[in-house]
Amino acid sequence: QVQLVESGGGLVQAGGSLRLSCASSGRILADYSMGWFRQAPGKERERLLGINWMGSRTLYTNSVKDRFTISRDNAKNTVVLQMNNLEPEDTAVYYCAADRGTMLSSTPDYWGQGTQVTVSS
What we know:
The chain has no helices and eleven strands. By secondary structure, it is mostly beta strands. Strands 2, 4, 5, 6, 9, 10 and 11 form a seven-stranded mixed β-sheet that branches. Strands 1-3-8-7 form a four-stranded antiparallel β-sheet, with no helix packed on it.
């Protein structure tokens, strides 16, 4: 059984930064793509960024381009989302996800429990 555990959410002022981490346990996920989604109140879950085991990154949402970056450490089974220049519109629950294969699909195999990010204006 694979478990994904996020950490690093919280409250930040607009223009600030946060770093979210996701640690996976159970099976080794070195051949999985990993990434991040978010869901704001009243909105659908949104796919943000993905990274496969070779380090190839894919941006799925232009609103976070040049502000959010994704990285992973295969040896530690972790993936990190660095969020800079945060905006109130980034307020959401952020979810880590893992998906078998070279791309992060919209319906990944595994989800984390989510971590709240709140950006104040």
